[in-house]
Amino acid sequence: MVEVGLSEKQFPQLLARHPHEFSGGQRQRIAIARALIVEPDILLVLDEPTSALDVTVQKQVVELLQHIQREHGLSYLIITHDVAVVAAMAHHILVMKDGVVVESGETVQLLSAPEHPYTRALIDATQDTAYRALPAA
Prior knowledge:
This protein has 137 residues and is α+β, with helices and mostly antiparallel strands. Helix content is 41%, strand content 17%. It is built from six helices and four strands. The protein has helices at 24-36, 55-72, 83-89, 107-112, 117-124, 128-131; strands spanning 43-47, 75-79, 92-97, 100-106. The strands form two sheets. It has a two-stranded parallel sheet. A two-stranded antiparallel ribbon has the order 3-4. Helix 1 (24-36) packs parallel to helix 2 (55-72). The longest helix has 18 residues, at 55-72. The radius of gyration is 16 Å and the shape is elongated.
């Protein structure tokens, strides 16, 4: 819990709380701690790791995941519709539409010069507000 930023010192009576008493960001940190407690060797699957979080908390969660990745040498398989999270965390992207890979490539290249219309639509649908706040990969 301390590794993901949740300690009794910082949050008194933390372990006595009920699930509904945690914020969205705290719940996400707990989910990350639960995944780490089994000490995965190489991979964590992250399904929409920042959904339903405000931009500030999204940034904190992305920075936490990047820190954990460096410290533990983990790889992530990130499943998301959030292009900001992809831009901040991914080194390689597979874009899927209806269960079929329509485009893949290195993150910088794919996001700067998408070839498939669906990839372009995903990027075009993105508003700059969230993307500027997230740290780059």
